[in-house]
C-alpha cells in the first residue's frame, strides 16, 4: 500500500500524517485530547457511552480499508486525523493563483481568512453532536440508533480534522481557536455556536432526519467547495470527510423516505384517500404528509441562511485567493477566474423579488446555494416517487428561497412558500399553515417512544431496505446490555 | 439496446455491476472513488459502464447505502442508457439453462468462478442461496491486489502417525476488512512459479470459522487443509503445491489471499431452519463454520443441525476431539468410519440408511436445508441413499431435490 494510506493506530491519536515525526503538533493535539474526551462525555450521546455500537472506523484511506465495522464503545472510538492521499503535482485550480502549485503551507497573506474558514467549518461539527445528544433515548430502532451514533462520532472526527489543521498551521492562534471549539455550546446564550441553524434544538427523530438531509447537506456543499482549495492539506482533509458525509446524507434521505413509506402504507391500509385529512392520519400513529411538508419548509429555510449573503465580498475574496472554490470546480468548464462574468441572483428590490445579474465573483454564495437547491431537489424527487408508488395523491415541494429567511436579501420581507411577498399580518395569520405549529411538534414528540429490541421498528417508520454492512434485519446494531 | 459499451461476445453470459436506483442517494462517492472512471451519472441515476468496470471493488466499501453491491449474470448487458432510465433494478434476467450459471455471482474472477462451478456441479442444476442467507461479499481482492494475511495458528487436527495430515490454519487480516460468510471460500495462490515458469494456479479453500472470526470479533478466519501427498504410478509421490504450502506455513508468515468467493453454498440465518450436513474428510470445513455460527447465535429457534461425517478412523477425522464436546441439542452427529478394525466398512450413505424415518421427516419439511461436501463421488452415494429413503416414505426424491435446489435448500460442493 502506498505511503500515507495506512493509518497509524498505535499512538494516542490515529493518523496518516506521520504525527510521530512532528513533535510540536503531536504535543499540541495530545494536550487538546483530554479536553475533547471530556467534551464528548459531557455533550456526546447522553446515556449510551457504555453501549457497544456497531460502528464503521476507517483503518486506511484506501477505499478498501476505510469501512471497517466492529462493536465499539463510543468514548473508545478511534478519532483520528485522516487525509486523502496526496496527489503529486496538484495545481491550484481557480482564482488569481490558478495554475500555480498547490500550497503545502499557509500563504502569509491569507492566514486570517483561512483561519476563519476552518473555524467556522470546525464549529458546526461539535455543534450537531450537541444538538442531537438526547435522541438516543427515543430511537425508533437499534438500526437508527446506530446510524445516529455513527453520524455523531464522525462529526467528532471532523472536528479533529479541522483542529489538526489549526494546530499544525496556525501556531498559538490555532491553539486558541481549537480550545474555543470545545468551549462554545449549541444554544448557549453566553457562548453559542457560530451559525444560527446550529443553535436550534433537534428535539425529535423527524427533525434529525430533516437536519441530516438539509443541514448536513450544506456541510457537504461547503466541504465540496473547500475540497477544491489551493491549500492542499485542507483539500485532502475535506476530500476524506466527504466520504463520511455521504453516510449522513444517507441517514437523512432514507430516514424521511421511511417515514413517508410508513405513512402511505398506513393510509392505504386504513383506506384514507385524502392526505390532508390530518386528524384521521394521525389517529393511525404516523406522521401526516402535510406536517412533513412543514418540517421540510422549516429545515430548508433555516439551512439556506447558512449560505450567507447572496452578494458577498468575503466569498469573492476566498475564491480569488484560491482558498475556496465552487461546487465541483474541477468539473466546470470556464476560465476559473470569473473576473469578467456575471451570475443571476435573486434580490429584493423595493419589496419585490427580482433576478439581477451581478459579477460572478461576488455571487459565489448564491451559486453554491443554487447547487445546493438542485441537490436537495433530487432527494425530494425520490421521496415523491415513493409517495407516487404508494398511490397517494400528494407531492412534497421545496419552498421558495425567499420563504422564512433570517439572513440575506429576503430577511427583511415575508414571503409564502411560492415566493409571493406578504404583509406581516398575513404572514402571521398563515405561519402555522407553512411551518410546524406547537401542536404539530407536540404530536411528533408524542410518537417518539423508543424501540430497542433487535429487528423492531417504531410504528411511525418503515424498516430499511438493506442493513448496514449487509447485516440481516434482526441484527443487534447496539448492544445495550452485556 | 446499445451493445456498443460492451466488449463481450454476443450471447456469452457476463457478470455486470449495477447500482440499485431505489437505494442509491446519488452522493457521488462511487464516481469519486472509481480509479478508472467506470461510474457516471445524469440527473436521474448513477450507473456503471460494463465495458469499463474491471471489478476492482474499490467503490463497494465506501458506498454508504449498499446500493453499489449488485451483480447480475446477463446474456445481454444493460447499456448506460438502459441504466440511466431506471427507477428500480429490473428483474434478474432468465438465463439459458445450458449456460449452467446461477443467478448469484460466486466470483468475478474467471479462474475462481470456474473452480466453484465445477465444485457445485453435483447439485444437478442451477443453485440458489438459501432465502434467509446473509448477503455475501465476493471478490473484494483479486490476484493482482490480494489481501495479505498473517498466519497466527497452524495445528494438525488429525492424530500424528496417520496418513491423513490435516491442518487447521488461522489467517489474521490485521487492519484489512475481509468479510466472509460461513460456506464461502477463499483463494490461495502459492508463491513462485510452476515447472512451466507460470504462476501457480489458484486453489479454493472453504472457510471453517464463523463470520466474526475464530473467536467472536476477531478479524481472522480458519481453513481446514489436507496435505496432498499421493503415490504416483512411477513410484514417486505427488505433492499438492497449495496444500503443502499451507500446511508448512510458520506462525508469522504472510499469505496472499484472494476472494472471498461463493454466493450460494451459504447457511440459512433462519434459526428455525434444519440443516443436514453430509461430509467426508476436509469437507467438514464449512460445517464447522455453520455449527460455530449456530452455537454463537444461540439456539433461539426450532432448527437443529444434523451431521453425517465420514472418515477412515476416528484418528483421521478432523476435529474429532472438539466434536465430542458439542451438545446434542445443538448438533445431532453421526460419525462414520470405514476402516475400523473388526468392523465392516461403513460410509456416510450407509449411516443415512439407518436413519430413514428421521431423514424422510426432514426432507418433507420446507425448512430443511441439505448440504453435501467432500470428495467427488460422495454425492452419488448420498443420492442413492436419499432415493431409497424417499421411495420407502412415498417421496419422489428427484422432484424433491429439484424443488429444494430451486428454493436454495440443496447444495453440493465436491472436488
Describe this structure in words.
Chain A is mainly alpha-helical. Chain A is 46% helix and 7% strand. Chain A has one domain (19-479): Ribonucleotide Reductase, subunit A, CATH 1.10.620. Chain A has twelve helices and seven strands. In chain A, a hairpin with a 2-residue loop joins strand 3 (342-349) and strand 4. Chain A starts with 22 loop residues before the first helix and ends with a strand. Chain B contains ten helices and 17 strands. A six-stranded antiparallel β-sheet of chain B has the order 8-7-12-5-6-9, sandwiched between helices. At the A-B interface, strand 2, helix 6 and helix 10 of A face helix 1 of B.
**Can you count the helices of chain A?**
12
Give the helix/strand class of chain B. Answer: alpha/beta
Alpha-beta classification of chain A: mainly alpha
Query: What is the mean predicted local confidence, pLDDT of chain B?
Result: 88
Which SSEs are present, and which pair or pack?
The complex is a heterodimer of chains A (482) and B (415).
Chain A: H1 23-43, E1 52-57, E2 68-73, H2 111-131, H3 142-169, H4 171-183, H5 205-226, H6 232-270, H7 278-283, H8 289-304, H9 313-320, E3 342-349, E4 352-359, H10 364-389, E5 414-415, E6 421-422, H11 424-434, H12 438-447, E7 478-479
Antiparallel strand pairs in A: 1-2, 1-7, 3-4, 5-6
Helix pairs in contact in A: 1-3, 1-4, 2-3, 2-4, 3-4, 3-6, 5-6, 5-8, 5-10, 6-10
Chain B: E1 14-18, H1 29-33, E2 39-41, E3 46-48, E4 70-74, H2 80-85, H3 110-120, E5 147-156, E6 166-172, E7 185-188, E8 203-206, E9 220-226, E10 229-231, E11 237-239, H4 241-247, E12 254-261, E13 274-280, H5 285-297, E14 305-311, H6 320-324, E15 331-337, H7 348-353, H8 356-364, E16 368-374, H9 378-392, H10 397-406, E17 410-414
Parallel strand pairs in B: 13-14, 13-16, 14-15, 16-17
Antiparallel strand pairs in B: 1-4, 2-3, 5-6, 5-12, 6-9, 7-8, 7-12, 10-11
Helix pairs in contact in B: 8-9
Amino acid at each position: 500500500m502506498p505511503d500515507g494510506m495506512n493509518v497509524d493506530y498505535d499512538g494516542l491519536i490515529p493518523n496518516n500524517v506521520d504525527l510521530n515525526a512532528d513533535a510540536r503538533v503531536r504535543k499540541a493535539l495530545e494536550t487538546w485530547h483530554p479536553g475533547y474526551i471530556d467534551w464528548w462525555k459531557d455533550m456526546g450521546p447522553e446515556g449510551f457511552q457504555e453501549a457497544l455500537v456497531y460502528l464503521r472506523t476507517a483503518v486506511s484511506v484506501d477505499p478498501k480499508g476505510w469501512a471497517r465495522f466492529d462493536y465499539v464503545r463510543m468514548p473508545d472510538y478511534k478519532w483520528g486525523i485522516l487525509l486523502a492521499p496526496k496527489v503529486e503535482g496538484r495545481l491550484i485550480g481557480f482564482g488569481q493563483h490558478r495554475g500555480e502549485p498547490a500550497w503545502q503551507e499557509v500563504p502569509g497573506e491569507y492566514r486570517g481568512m483561512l483561519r476563519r474558514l476552518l473555524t467556522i467549518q470546525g464549529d458546526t461539527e461539535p455543534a450537531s453532536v450537541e444538538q442531537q445528544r438526547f435522541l438516543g433515548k427515543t430511537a425508533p430502532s437499534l438500526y437508527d440508533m446506530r446510524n445516529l451514533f455513527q453520524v455523531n462520532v464522525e462529526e467528532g472526527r471532523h472536528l479533529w480534522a479541522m483542529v489538526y489543521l489549526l494546530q499544525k498551521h496556525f501556531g498559538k492562534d490555532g491553539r486558541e481557536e481549537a480550545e474555543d471549539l470545545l468551549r462554545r455550546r449549541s444554544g448557549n446564550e453566553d457562548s453559542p455556536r457560530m451559525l444560527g441553524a446550529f443553535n436550534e434544538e433537534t428535539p425529535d427523530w423527524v427533525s434529525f432526519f430533516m437536519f441530516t438531509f438539509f443541514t448536513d447537506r450544506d456541510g457537504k456543499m461547503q466541504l465540496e467547495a473547500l475540497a477544491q482549495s489551493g491549500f492542499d492539506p485542507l483539500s485532502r482533509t475535506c476530500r476524506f470527510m466527504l466520504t463520511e458525509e455521504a453516510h449522513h446524507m444517507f441517514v437523512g434521505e432514507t430516514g424521511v423516505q421511511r417515514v413517508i413509506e410508513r405513512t402511505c402504507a398506513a393510509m392505504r391500509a386504513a383506506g384514507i384517500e385524502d392526505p390532508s385529512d390530518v386528524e384521521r392520519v394521525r389517529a393511525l400513529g404516523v406522521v401526516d404528509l402535510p406536517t412533513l411538508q412543514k418540517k421540510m419548509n422549516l429545515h430548508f429555510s433555516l439551512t439556506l441562511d447558512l449560505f450567507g449573503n447572496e452578494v458577498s465580498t468575503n466569498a469573492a475574496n476566498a475564491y480569488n485567493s484560491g482558498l475556496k472554490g465552487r461546487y465541483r470546480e474541477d468539473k466546470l468548464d470556464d476560465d476559473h477566474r470569473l473576473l469578467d462574468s456575471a451570475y443571476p441572483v435573486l434580490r429584493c428590490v423595493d419589496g419585490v423579488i427580482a433576478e439581477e445579474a451581478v459579477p460572478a465573483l461576488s455571487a459565489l454564495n448564491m451559486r453554491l446555494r443554487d447547487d445546493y437547491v438542485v441537490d436537495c431537489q433530487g432527494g425530494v424527487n425520490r421521496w415523491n416517487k415513493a409517495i407516487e408508488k404508494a398511490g397517494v395523491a400528494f407531492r412534497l415541494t421545496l419552498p421558495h428561497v425567499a420563504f422564512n429567511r433570517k439572513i440575506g436579501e429576503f430577511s427583511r420581507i415575508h414571503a409564502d412558500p411560492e415566493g409571493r411577498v406578504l404583509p406581516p399580518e398575513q404572514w402571521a395569520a398563515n405561519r402555522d399553515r407553512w411551518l410546524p405549529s406547537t401542536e404539530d411538534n407536540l404530536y411528533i414528540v408524542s410518537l417518539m417512544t423508543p424501540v430497542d429490541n433487535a429487528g423492531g421498528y417504531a410504528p411511525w417508520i418503515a424498516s430499511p431496505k438493506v442493513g448496514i454492512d449487509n447485516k440481516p434485519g434482526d441484527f443487534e446494531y447496539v448492544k445495550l446490555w452485556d | 439496446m446499445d451493445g456498443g459499451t460492451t466488449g463481450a461476445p454476443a450471447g456469452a453470459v457476463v457478470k455486470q455491476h449495477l447500482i440499485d436506483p431505489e437505494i442509491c442517494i446519488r452522493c457521488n462517492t462511487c464516481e469519486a472513488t472509481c480509479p478508472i472512471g467506470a461510474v457516471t451519472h445524469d440527473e436521474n441515476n448513477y450507473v456503471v459502464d460494463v465495458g469499463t468496470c474491471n471489478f476492482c471493488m474499490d467503490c463497494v466499501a465506501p458506498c454508504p447505502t449498499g446500493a453499489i453491491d449488485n451483480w447480475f449474470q446477463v446474456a445481454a448487458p444493460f447499456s448506460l442508457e438502459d441504466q440511466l432510465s431506471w427507477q428500480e433494478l429490473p428483474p434478474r434476467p432468465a438465463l439459458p439453462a445450458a449456460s449452467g450459471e446461477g443467478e448469484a455471482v460466486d466470483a468475478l474472477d474467471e479462474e475462481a468462478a470456474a473452480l466453484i462451478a465445477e465444485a457445485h456441479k453435483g447439485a444437478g442444476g442451477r443453485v440458489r442461496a438459501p432465502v434467509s442467507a446473509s448477503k455475501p461479499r465476493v471478490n473484494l481482492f483479486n490476484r493482482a491486489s490480494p489481501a495479505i494475511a498473517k498466519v497466527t495458528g497452524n495445528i494438525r487436527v488429525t492424530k500424528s502417525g496417520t496418513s491423513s495430515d490435516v491442518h487447521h490454519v488461522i489467517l489474521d487480516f490485521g487492519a484489512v476488512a475481509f468479510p466472509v460468510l460461513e460456506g464461502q471460500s477463499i483463494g490461495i495462490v502459492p508463491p513462485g512459479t510452476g515447472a512451466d515458469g507460470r504462476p501457480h494456479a489458484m486453489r479454493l479453500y472453504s472457510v471453517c470459522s464463523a463470520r466474526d472470526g475464530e473467536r467472536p470479533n476477531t478479524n481472522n478466519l480458519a481453513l481446514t487443509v489436507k496435505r496432498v501427498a499421493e503415490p504416483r504410478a512411477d513410484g514417486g509421490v505427488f505433492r499438492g503445491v497449495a496444500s503443502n504450502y499451507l500446511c508448512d506455513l510458520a506462525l508469522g508468515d504472510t499469505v496472499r489471499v484472494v476472494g472471498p468467493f461463493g454466493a450460494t453454498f451459504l447457511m440459512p440465518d433462519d434459526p428455525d431452519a434444519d440443516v443436514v450436513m453430509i461430509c467426508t474428510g476436509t469437507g467438514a470445513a464449512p460445517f464447522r463454520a455453520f455449527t460455530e455460527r449456530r452455537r454463537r447465535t444461540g439456539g433461539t429457534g426450532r432448527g437443529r443441525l444434523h451431521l453425517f461425517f465420514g472418515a477412515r478412523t476416528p484418528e483421521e477425522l478432523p476435529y474429532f476431539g472438539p466434536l465430542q464436546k458439542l451438545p446434542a441439542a445443538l448438533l445431532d452427529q453421526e460419525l462414520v468410519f470405514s476402516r475400523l478394525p473388526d468392523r465392516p466398512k461403513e460410509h456416510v450413505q450407509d449411516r443415512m440408511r439407518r436413519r430413514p424415518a428421521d431423514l424422510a421427516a426432514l426432507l418433507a419439511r420446507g425448512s430443511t436445508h441439505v448440504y453435501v461436501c467432500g470428495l467427488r463421488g460422495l454425492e452419488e452415494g448420498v443420492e442413492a441413499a436419499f432415493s431409497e429413503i424417499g421411495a420407502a416414505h412415498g417421496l419422489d426424491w428427484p422432484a424433491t431435490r429439484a424443488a429444494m435446489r430451486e428454493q436454495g435448500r440443496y447444495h453440493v460442493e465436491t472436488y
